[in-house]
Specification:
Blueprint: E1 4-8, H1 13-24, E2 28-33, E3 50-54, H2 60-70, E4 74-77, H3 84-87, H4 91-111, E5 120-126, H5 148-167, E6 170-176, E7 179-180, H6 189-201, E8 208-210, E9 216-217, E10 220-221, H7 222-234, E11 240-243, E12 249-250, H8 251-260, E13 266-269, E14 276-279, E15 285-289, H9 307-313, H10 321-347
Parallel strand pairs: 1-2, 1-4, 2-3, 4-5, 5-6, 6-11, 7-10, 8-15
Antiparallel strand pairs: 9-12, 13-14, 14-15
Helix pairs in contact: 1-7, 2-4, 4-5, 6-8, 6-10
Bound molecules: guanosine-5'-diphosphate-alpha-D-mannose.
Guanosine-5'-diphosphate-alpha-D-mannose binds near residues 82, 293 and 302.
């Protein structure tokens, strides 16, 4: 029988990649999208066979009706206010969407009478919940969130566990470390860097302004992680899993590896807010530091230990760090070539 999946946050990087994976597996895929006055469906426009529904994580009635109409076998809750830095500016909205949103889905599951295993619920929990807990972090590590985003995600993590234990619902958490791809939003540091480097190469800008260069993240490829979250929901018993590569790199490393893709070596000079990164050959400043990109409170070091997912689900990432950077750089260079071609055509 064809399985039916509902993905909230379908227009995001993860939603678009997961939709493609599920369609390829033969699922009927439903996506919940937020109404937006400006076009926001670029990532899913080319995907055939999606069933789209307007929905809102702050509207419990809407969520209940959607579940009742769609009758999904699996729900992947990927909708979120996903930018950690911005969550300091909109903490109530972050709580409403990221903490109460998943609760509304869990309540809707109860309301429509979902019994054990009838609907499988996946909650997109985050490594940001570990905050300042020492690395490496796994399912047994204490949570010490450092942002409104991480704190709201932690509430949803516990509610997912509570509903599993109190009502016997199939409700699982994936605690995902940072996962990137060419579809990553430009406000996140990896895509900000790869896109800007390609623009520098094309002569469209001179430099990139960044914040904390020494913060370390465990960056994996979102394609690997979306396959992993599908595996989480196929396990016979609902459980919580960390997905991570087990390798951490600093923002500075990411900059160096991404620039090396276009043959540029970076030399660092100065300290703190006065640090700059120069092109070793030309001496031009390619990176500078701006205080506006620092957070009120920073998570300095995230490094995941995905032993449980490897042993229980057989999951492991296929992309290396260098492979991830290369994939993102290659994609942004194609866009850059298109811009160059368009300007040549205009010039003729
Ligand atoms: N965004 C951004 N912009 N981050 C910068 C910049 C900059 O100019 N300069 C340095 N950074 C540092 C941030 O301070 C942070 O330490 C690191 O780069 C990564 O920032 P983001 O790419 O914005 O991601 P994040 O780690 O805060 O959050 C992402 O990963 C979480 C999982 O751990 C998001 O995808 C979250 O939604 C996700 O839960």
């Amino acid at each position: 029988m064809t399985k039916r999946a509902l993905i909230t946050g379908i227009t995001g990087q993860d939603g678009a990649l997961l939709a493609e994976i599920l369609l390829a597996k033969g699922y009927e895929v439903h996506g919940m999208r937020l109404y937006s006055a400006v076009p926001d469906a670029g990532r899913i426009e080319s995907i055939d066979g999606l069933n789209l529904h307007y929905g809102d994580m702050t509207d419990g009635g809407n969520i209940t009706r959607l579940l009742d109409t769609i009758q999904p076998d699996e729900i992947y809750n990927l909708a979120a206010m996903s930018h950690v830095h911005v969550s300091f500016a909109v903490p109530e909205a972050a709580a409403n969407i990221n903490a109460l949103g998943p609760l509304r889905i869990l309540e809707a599951m109860r309301t429509i009478g979902a019994t054990e295993n009838q609907i499988r619920f996946y909650q997109a929990s985050s490594s940001e919940m570990f905050g300042r807990s020492p690395a490496p972090q796994n399912e047994m590590t204490n949570f010490e969130p450092c942002s409104p985003y991480g704190t709201a995600k932690l509430y949803a993590y516990w509610m997912t566990r509570n509903y599993r234990e109190a009502y016997g619902l199939y409700a699982a958490n994936g605690i995902l470390f940072n996962h990137e791809s060419p579809l990553r939003g430009e406000e996140f540091v990896t895509r900000k860097i790869t896109k800007a480097i390609c623009e520098i190469e094309a002569g469209l800008r001179d430099k990139i302004s960044l914040g904390n260069l020494d913060s370390k993240r465990d960056w994996g490829h979102a394609k690997d992680y979306m396959e992993g979250i599908w595996q989480i929901l196929q396990a016979p018993e609902a459980d919580d899993y960390v997905l991570a590569t087990g390798e951490a790199h600093s923002v500075r490393d990411f900059v160096e590896v991404a620039f090396s893709y276009i043959g540029t070596e970076i030399i660092w000079e100065g300290d703190g807010i006065n640090e700059v990164g120069r092109d070793k050959i030309t001496g031009n400043i390619l990176i500078d530091i701006k205080s506006e990109f620092f957070r009120p409170k920073e998570v300095n070091y995230l490094l995941g230990d995905a032993t449980k997912a490897r042993e229980k689900l057989g999951w492991s990432p296929s992309y290396s760090f260098e492979g991830l950077v290369e994939d993102m750089m290659r994609a942004d260079r194609v866009v850059k070539s298109r811009i160059e071609l368009q300007s040549k055509i205009r010039a003729v």
